[in-house]
Amino acid sequence: MGAIDTEETQIVAEAEKALADIRIVREEVSKVIYGQESVVENVLLAILSGGHALLVGVPGLAKTKLVATLGTVLGLDGNRIQFTPDLMPSDILGSEVLEEREAGRRAFRFIKGPVFAQLLMADEINRASPRTQSALLQSMQEYAVTIAGQHYDLPRPFHVLATQNPLEQEGTYPLPEAQLDRFLLQVNVDYPDIASERRILLETTGAEEATASPVLSAARLMEIQTLIRKMPVSESVLEAILALVRAARPGEGHADTDRDVAWGPGPRAGQSLMLTARARALYQGRLAPSVDDVRALAGPVLQHRMALTFAARAEGKTVTDVIAAIAQRDFN
């Protein structure tokens, strides 16, 4: 019993220290990003959980600025890729060049691409071709790339924060389902409220513009990520996650889902909920997640891992509406 009590005391102490660090991170980000509290929270949850996030919204909503600010505040070495239709996989991963060395010998040397960073900003990711989008698949899942048969590990931690324009815009390509599933969360970025927009106008058009300062180091961020994986999850929260994910799949005995959902989330969605629910609890100053955390994260975790049937789309239903109905049906 003594060893268990000591371990619990240590986790509590680590959690309190981590909470203080997270609070300072939030304060620094708020100096630059006005409003959008839920967007900032969800992107931070993805990073604290050790995963990647997809930010979806029209241009001009400070998505790119948010990613750059987080890189500074979290102490991460970052790179930015502007995705365009002519972007090639080698522009992301790197390529081999033939060099002439001593005694006239020639050999290939690998030049690393921008993916070799701790925080990769993939800007307007859906403006590149599916072939180039898929170049990120291995790096997002395995934290490594393979070039000409050689295996190269990426820096740790490694996070991809991608921005995406709505698919209705010109010159966009839908992301492959396999790549969408690699994103821990999809974060929808909406227009700011009037108070936030007023502050944006005043604060960003003067002689000086606010900047954020570094708060964490990469090593400290990884310590917090490890702590989150140690946080206990109750049986009720585990059952809620299983119930939610399985209820979003057709063929599980739910007539509404069978009618509205063409294909549903896989086990990776449950893993994402387990991690982000823990991170949300810590973010809000709690030591264990609750069913409310699962409900709050249902949309960001599931919406990019599901597709609606033609009949549901014809009725004007959205994935968000369907997920909200499923969460309410199973948890209330």
TrEMBL record:
Pfam families tied to this protein: AAA_3, AAA_lid_2
Where does the ChlI/MoxR AAA lid domain lie?
257-324
In terms of SUPFAM superfamilies, this protein maps to: P-loop containing nucleoside triphosphate hydrolases (SSF52540)
What Gene Ontology molecular function terms does this protein carry?
Answer: ATP binding; ATP hydrolysis activity
Q: Which domain of life is it from?
A: Bacteria
Q: Which residues belong to any copy of the ATPase AAA-3 domain?
A: 52-185
Cross-referenced Gene3D superfamilies: Magnesium chelatase subunit I, C-Terminal domain (1.10.8.80), P-loop containing nucleotide triphosphate hydrolases (3.40.50.300)
- Which PANTHER family does the UniProt record give? MAGNESIUM-CHELATASE SUBUNIT CHLD (PTHR42759:SF1), MOXR FAMILY PROTEIN (PTHR42759)
The identity of this protein, by name, is: Gas vesicle protein GvpN
From which source organism is this entry? Martelella mediterranea DSM 17316
